[in-house]
Amino acid sequence: MRVFPASIPLDGQTVIVSGAGFMAEAKARLFVGSPARLKWFTGTDTDPVASDIAQYAEVIRREPTRWDFHGATLVFIAGGSDKSIDRQAKRARKAGAYVNIVDSPKASDFQTPAIVDRDGIVVSIASGGAAPVLSVDIRAEIERVLPARIGILADLARELRGTVKSVFDKFDDRRAFWERALRGRARDFALSGDKAAARREMLKTLNAEDSEPEGIVHLIGAGPGDPDLLTLKAARLLREADVVVFDRLVGEGVLDLARRDAIRIDVGKTKGHHPVPQEEITDILVREARKGQRVVRLKGGDPFIFGRGGEELETLDAAGIKSEVTPGISAALACAASARIPLTHRDHAQSVTFASGVVKKDGPDADYSALAAPNSTGVFYMGVGAAPQIQSKLLGTGRHAATPVAIIENGSTEHERTVTGTLGGLATLVEAEAIKGPAVIIIGETAAFAARAEARDIADAVEQIA
Fold first, then answer.
1. How large is the average pLDDT for residues 24-35?
2. Can you say whether the dihedral through the CA atoms of 61, 66, 71, 74 is positive or negative?
3. Domain boundary among 207, 231, 252
4. What pLDDT was estimated at residue 381?
5. Which structural domain, as residue segments, surrounds residue 318?
6. Exposed (0-12), middle (13-18) or buried (19+): which is 466, by Cβ within 10 Å?
7. Which residues in 31-165 belong to E strands, given as ranges?
8. What is the pLDDT of residue 462?
9. Across all residues in the chain, what is the average pLDDT?
10. pLDDT band at residue 393, thresholds of 50, 70 and 90?
11. In this structure, what CATH number is given to the domain that contains residue 344?
12. Same domain, yes or no, for 358 and 417?
């Protein structure tokens, strides 16, 4: 370890920023909202100070004197002549302050790390000043996965620390309590912004330390396959899961986000092959939740768009199991975006209808009159095997044979493929292109945008060769 990222409590401390311009402003903004007293010496600069800083800092339009540094803990010097910088640094150090000379790591007592601020939780990424851009990029990745309201949990832990210590004499008992409290329902309430409910749940856990933990099932949309399209909340819940029950269409990169020690149960189905019937899947969810487990039911796309999430939710409710739903990016949205197809367009489509090419035996069929309406887009899931029937029914209800069609296979993955044609040749197109699925079929005037995008790609490739 080449640098040690120590944390300094800011209560009652004085922080000084000296200099003007964007670098000085960035340092000053670090401490806005903190309990520290912030003094910003802008020198002779007369430009207005950003309102968020002006409301918090004491802005002084001159260079700091030796007396100004007395009582300061941290001093940031951003700009000025070499002589002025050297003079201020010597005076600040003599007064007992730690000095950071912006963009001069070797001349500084400390470097400013890239910071992820969640109020009660602060994460720093330090490179010793060697690679600040890399530190910023790492910070962006942490920002992506660290819940915005995680600081609420830290605040509650701070407030209840003394109470917990009075209840549990032994360190191991206190640690066990905090593991239950900070990873259970209190966490869910806190991250949803309900601090009062989170506090009640923590106190409930404190008063029932011998009770069995309460299980929960999260129905989560895993998106179309690309792990980068997973929502932040879904990624967090997946990392926290004790049990992951997943479908065939869940991308491998998505499952990689789960804990290594999480139990993984594959309940994937293919056409005509259902090794784990739906009734058994719901039995698994209920059984694991009753063990006190945090169960994630991971579904491709969105659980409420042809994912049978509604059926599973009904079963969980009937069994008295707590459950929550986290939506995912549906295959229709992801595939259309990847193929550059707008599902609605002011000139071409004033509505969009999602339909399944496969319906329940003896159940109602999709409303093909709505799907055949002009100026509308129809999106079919699970339509590859039913392409001849879809073609026949749409033509039979008035949709023109020349209506553009686009088929996106393995959308959002490295194996993605888009083929285009017309409604009159849909069944032939599926057969000729050997479309196997999973695929989404888009029918309507906007589907022509895919062919335009393909033509542009070909033209660009030809131009590069030429």
1. 93
2. positive
3. 207
4. 93
5. 216-329
6. exposed
7. 37-41, 58-60, 72-78, 98-101, 114-118, 121-125
8. 46
9. 89
10. very high
11. 3.30.950.10
12. yes
Distance, in Å, from the CA atom of 220 to the CA atom of 235, rounded to the nearest integer, reads 9
Give 58's strand partners: 39
The two tokens of residue 423 are: 């409604």
The pLDDT-based confidence of 364 (bands split at 50, 70, 90) is confident
- The secondary structure of residue 81, as a DSSP letter, is -
Residue 354 has pLDDT above 90, yes or no: yes
Pick from 41, 46, 47, 44: nearest CA to 66:
41
Same domain for 311 and 351: no
pLDDT 10s digits, 373-386: 888 999 999 999 99
CATH of the domain at 46: 3.40.50.720
Q: Is residue 1 part of a domain?
A: no
Query: Which two structure tokens, joined as six digits, stand for 232?
Result: 């932040």
Q: How many beta carbons lie within 10 A of that of residue 78, not counting itself?
A: 22
Please state, in angstroms and as integers, the Cα–Cα distance from residue 242 to each residue in 259, 263, 264, 288, 319, following that order.
Answer: 8, 6, 9, 9, 20
- Give me the active site residues, please: 247, 269
The answer to whether the peptide bond before residue 438 is cis (omega within 30 degrees of 0) is yes
Task: State the helix-helix crossing angle for 132-145 and 232-240, rounded to 10 degrees.
Answer: 80
In the chain, the number of structural domains is: 4
The confidence score (pLDDT) of residue 101 equals 96
**Is-above-0.70 flag for pTM?**
no
Whether residue 140 lies inside any domain: the answer is no
Task: Tell me the β-bridge partners of 263.
Answer: 243
119 falls within a domain: no
103 C-beta neighbours (distance < 10 Å), count: 12
Name the nearest CA neighbour of 99 among 190, 214, 17: 17
Residues 338 and 429 in one domain: yes
**Does a structural domain hold residue 4?**
no
CATH number, domain containing residue 249: 3.40.1010.10
